[in-house]
Specification:
CATH architecture: 3-Layer(aba) Sandwich
InterPro entries: JAB_dom_prok (IPR028090), VirAsm_ModProt (IPR051929)
Oligomer: single chain
Shape: globular
GO molecular function, one term: zinc ion binding
Protein name: JAB domain-containing protein
Low-confidence stretches: 1-11
Strand order of the largest sheet: 2-1-3-4-5-6
CATH topology: Cytidine Deaminase, domain 2
Radius of gyration: 15 Å
Strand content: 25-35%
Structural class: alpha+beta
Keywords: Hydrolase, Metal-binding, Metalloprotease, Protease, Zinc
Pfam families: Prok-JAB
CATH class: Alpha Beta
CATH superfamily: Cytidine Deaminase, domain 2
Order of helices and strands: HHEEHEHEEE
Amino acid sequence: MLALRRGGSEALIQHAPPEVLAMMIRHLEAAWPQEGCGVILRSGAGEGDSWRVVPLPNTSPTPHVAYAFAPEVWLQVCLDADARQEAVVCVFHSHVDAPAVFSSEDRRQAAPSGIPLLPQVSYVVVAIRGGRAASASRSIWSAGDFQTVPLALADFRFEKTV
């Protein structure tokens, strides 16, 4: 059911239009002082790619320090993605006034018992300080663990037009 047909973890960074990543950043900044979260979906291949940012409500009981998707909302995202022939390529969330690192809690949620739930998906964490994106990282499952690399926010920082 879950759309993981194509795309994979490299697709987000190598091919996503900057405006898609800017939409993600704007959502995470707007969620501050709570953690924001969502997914990025992709359909098509090559120049016909279509990208969609899906902000999701954070249903964690402690939204200042954690995020969670409501199971029924996540199921609907997956069903819609399948119907539209989209692949989940990124799960994203913010850390409030904390570093953009894939934390031990993030790892536990993404790979319970050391088995990744979405092995072909990038996990992007954006540090939001004072309501503004300060830094970001991307983690992917590789060689039996999550490997994390920093992302340059300048690569996809766009100010809102007036």
